[in-house]
Amino acid sequence: MDNINPLSMEDFIHNGPLTEIARDINRLKKQMREQALMPLFTPLVPSGDTTGAKDTYNIKAAIDNAITFSATTVVLGSGLFYISSTLYISESNVKLVGQGEGFDSTHYATCIKWVGSAGGTMLEIAPISPYGHHLQHNGVNGIFWNGNNSAAIGINLLSTNYGYYNIVGEEFTTSLVNMSQVQYALTPWRNCQFNTISIIGTCYASNGSILKLGGTSVPDISNTSHNMFPRIDAFYGYGGTGGAAVDIGAADNNFFGLLRLWKAAGTNHTAVGLLLRASSVQYLDNYYNRFEYVQACSDSNGFGGGVWAQGTETETWPSYGNGIRHLDQANCGSAYPPVTIGTGASLAYEGDAFHV
């Protein structure tokens, strides 16, 4: 080493064999990253496997790669994908995007169909660590979700914030979209807030909802708030018993634009268009939600539909302070939708007259 002058030492450091090894490692890491990210930027192609095994594996792998390499978008190509178990997004900024959601199970560009066990969830976006951070800036767009009248939930959003979702789907036994919070503590908060979500859905053969908002079992503050729903368009309530197209539990200060809720003429005579739930727990009621326009028609025989603000006739704590800017009763034909305000509940709405 005594014979190496400073220039030779500098040359050894910058151009010696160790440096060349480091460069090889960096080139290899770059190549691995590019190969891993190929499914993210090159749309995944449906496998044609109707058992769901291949498509489930491929989509999960692409989501995992997006999480590992901090990518933002997993792209699905055109066609029909089959899944047999739940897809999970557990980190912020990851989005799942197809080529176009269409409007039903035969008219779409990209469709994901459930072929798993009854009662499953197709996609869950939620933090996985009991001490982790809530998620931010996730999204779903351009995919038709087919629950096959078997999956319970289409998209389950838990403790996610600032996301953008355009969701179209059909045939879920519980709900096309469910929003609530995880039941463990998150930092800094665990609420599901500040998302923008448009929904078009059909729950025709079952009594599932298009949207369920807010949980019903966590003794904590109302957990789904300050979200915006520009449009919800639903056809619901043919089979089953009871249920509601839009079912709002523990939720407050959400804004809804256009709600067009059409009750199917079938065997289910009691399904409600918009349900504002009362609660057995004080801080799990719903309040101060605002609706710009609501059309909640009964079916052609005059059954079901309408709006029900539950009061103490159902639970201890009534819904209160909710308001409908315009309740469209004129465009529901001969089936005049009922408005039911329960004992102790409050609902302001403007239809044929202004009611408080």
Summarize the structure.
The chain has helices at 6-15, 17-41, 53-68; strands at 73-75, 79-83, 87-89, 95-97, 110-114, 121-125, 135-136, 139-141, 144-146, 153-158, 160-161, 164-170, 175-180, 192-193, 196-203, 209-213, 224-225, 228-236, 244-248, 251-252, 255-263, 272-276, 290-297, 307-309, 322-327, 339-341, 347-350, 354-355. It has 356 residues and is an alpha/beta fold. Strands 1, 2, 4, 5, 8, 9, 12, 15, 18, 21, 23, 25, 27 and 28 form a 14-stranded mixed beta sheet that branches. It has a nine-stranded parallel beta sheet with strand order 3-6-10-13-16-19-22-24-26. Strands 14-17-20 form a three-stranded parallel beta sheet, with no helix packed on it.
Description of the molecule:
- The chain has 356 residues and is an alpha/beta fold.
- The protein folds into two domains: 1-42; 43-355, Single-stranded right-handed beta-helix, Pectin lyase-like (Pectate Lyase C-like), CATH 2.160.20.10.
- Helices cover 14% and strands 35% of the residues.
- It is built from three helices and 28 strands.
- The protein has helices spanning 6-15, 17-41, 53-68, and strands at 73-75, 79-83, 87-89, 95-97, 110-114, 121-125, 135-136, 139-141, 144-146, 153-158, 160-161, 164-170, 175-180, 192-193, 196-203, 209-213, 224-225, 228-236, 244-248, 251-252, 255-263, 272-276, 290-297, 307-309, 322-327, 339-341, 347-350, 354-355.
- The strands form four sheets. Strands 1, 2, 4, 5, 8, 9, 12, 15, 18, 21, 23, 25, 27 and 28 form a 14-stranded mixed beta sheet that branches. A nine-stranded parallel beta sheet has the order 3-6-10-13-16-19-22-24-26. A three-stranded parallel beta sheet has the order 14-17-20, with no helix packed on it.
- Strand 27 (347-350) and strand 28 (354-355) form a beta hairpin.
- The protein is globular.
- Mean pLDDT is 83; it is low at 218-222.
